[in-house]
Amino acid sequence: MSIISQITRDEWRFWKRTKIATTALIIGTLLALISAVVNTIEMEHATHEREHLQHTSESRFLEQPDRHPHRMVHYGHYVFRAPSPLSIIEPGVDAFTGTSIFLEGHRQNSAMFSEQRQASGMTRFSSLTPSFLLQVLVPLFIILIGYASITREKQAGTLNIMITQGVNLSHLLFGKYLALLCSGFLMLLPLVISAIWATTNGESVLLTSSFVAGYVLYILIWSGLVLAVSAMSKKSSASFAILVGMWIVFCILIPRIGSSSAAALAPSLGKLEADFAVLEELRKLGDGHNAADAAFEQLKKNLLAKYEVEKIEDLPINFRGSVAQYSEKKLTSVLNQFAEKRMEEELSQAQIARQFGWLTPTTAIRSFSMMIAGTSLETHHRFLREAENLRFEFVQSLNKIHQDTLDYQADINRHNDDKAARVNASNWQVLSEFSFKPDASTVRLASSTPYLIQLVLWGVIVIFGLRFAVRRIS
Amino acid sequence: MKFFSNITREARFLFKQKYLVGILTAVFALSLFSVWSGLSEMQTQSSTIERLKEKDRVDRENVLAKQSGYGSAAYYAFHLTYSEPSNLAFAAIGQRDVFPWKHRIRMLAIEGQIYETDADNPELSFLGRFDFAFLVSVLLPLFVILLLHDLRSSEREAGRYDLLITTAVKQKYLWLTRAFVLSASLALVLLVPFVIGAVISNASFVGTSLIVLVVFAHIVFWTLLIVWYTSNKMALKQNSTQVASALLSVWLMVSVLIPATTDVAIDKMVTSPNGGDILLVQREAVNDAWDLPDSVTWDAFLATHPQWKNYTDMGLTFEWKWYYAFQQVGDQKASELSEKYRQATLEKDTLASRLALLSPPMLTQRLMSSLAETDTQAAMQYEQNIRAYHNSLRHFYYPLMFTRAEFSLDKMSELPDFSQFSKK
Question: What's the complex ipTM?
């Protein structure tokens, strides 16, 4: 044991003497710290802003004057997606999906105004988020610090001396590994602090600790890779070239090739094109604004039979309101069917891109990190579904008010006497509050498992690599 | 002649080294992949637009056949707008995955429709695409570094340095020739797939040459930087990995840190109205109109369309002309905010183009997407085209609605077509 710790301490002493390692370590840690602070401030700001906007939107709806209920269906409502606490580290798709949706009758709008659309376009490769730093840059820093850890000893001839002095090779490697890990963990420290911050903001401890554990594993993998390559190379320059090459391939190339392949392998039709089919279906349903549309003949017959009357005018309810309710229901089920299909398509594209996690630990940690943080595509889809539920609920409540509260004659006559065809503003209370919560921790842990398996596999590969390296030296 | 014999000698020496050949082959394969995936993406986009055009035409014909008035025709008929990928778009997908390139609009208030996006899969956009521009702007410097960082140090480490220096006629030429051979071969393996792609997609000679020029310029920049750095006194004492680390940190600085910090800075420098506010203003204006006296709508409408002041009489029932008038008024009320929003986007882009001078990789990327017409400018131009087209729809329908013209399908065949607006 003392040998291991001595080797570790020697390694530290060596780094202190050489400039590259210390510089890399200082820059890496500083960057991680700065990005954590900047991102935390920005996300906190976004959270407050979106909560505020949500609140404003709700009170505006409630403040509307007496109106025809169908006017409120078209007046509509806004919902905003509040970021999850861990998005201070991993913003995920947040900047690329719009974060607000306008909800109105007869339509499912897409989320609008994504941040990237209003950004300078400078961050298409890099960004100052802790997740980018840890996933992409920290491996490079680990390489710069550790590429020579074994080759140095080989080139100086000290490795042979140590071996002849009876130093166990595994102990030597382990000591060096510990030293390298410490530097990796130092750069991870700002993330741990951010994670603790997220915990105080209501994230479950189980989640934040597995989040940190995922990144610890990632650092273990990269440090192991660096050490294994260094142990297997003859010269420092070769070790360096191989490691930088691996970094380019693993951290930059494969994730992007994954995304390009997904787009090419599973092309999605796009909302616009799918909308043609939606419109086609919707036209068959009839226009809910026109109660005389032939599509509502059956509804009319059923209602007349139910209330045992002859004419629409004799119904105790407002037939136009019934039609609005009936057609909104039909229309929504068609819209949902297409929306679900579209989400499935998007998800299968994402799944292809995520499979590249078997080829690079960077894609694996990225998927894992988005899943745990609740900033993945799935979370965005859930936001779309919850927004849709709210839309359907308030639109149908308004339609019910239309049916039950508004007099049919007054409604028919609305163009001549517009004041009589209104209902009291107190009815607008049907709108329920919207607050988007991240998935439960069990759900997020379960959905992150496949990517944890990818990471573990990489861990196993590294262990084998290190054992192979030990055998090769001796 | 001396020059050529120097080059062939160095080339023969360098290409005997397996790892150099390996790197060059890998770059060639990557360039091939990026060009292929770009071509396939643009092929998909073009054929999507063609398909949409046809579906749009059929759909509109079906809808119009069922209409009996211009008001309802304008309400139910959608119109496709699109931005065709340029012939060079395969090389730089640019902002095309963030901004929309296809859109269907109708004659309702444009502000309520124009921000709808049929965007790409957000997770794929987040991961980023691997296009030729990315290869050239971000990865190319790394390849140049890998190839050239040990120009001198490798010879020193091989023990040939002193010998080389004493035998070379002029040692400066030796390193320059070597750097030239390596960079030229790098340019060759990068550009061959690109030029093939340009020929396949029928790109213009000028555009293709300009992109080739940008690629050359970027390679030359990094080559000179490395040659200069490796020849200074400090670097002469360093071993090859120390040189490479120093060069890598330069790369890190210009392709990661500068872009990321300028992005934050630009965001702070330009104040933009919240996009949601545009929709909110437009929505309040349009919805309030139902409850307001007609005269309020007409006053605001006639302020911009005085030619219709004698045609605002309202019948007993619902009037479409009034409906479209308040849609127009909704746009007018939101136009100031909307214009500010657009200006802010453009201002950010202008600032980014200036600050990109600090970062050669960003500059390269911006130049390439500008040549490929996939940059923010092009996206904003498309947005303006949509607005102009929407306006022409209004010009088409207003006279028909205000003069209560008899509905005729023949007249509808004169509907403006977006293809006249899709050109710059």
Answer: 0.86
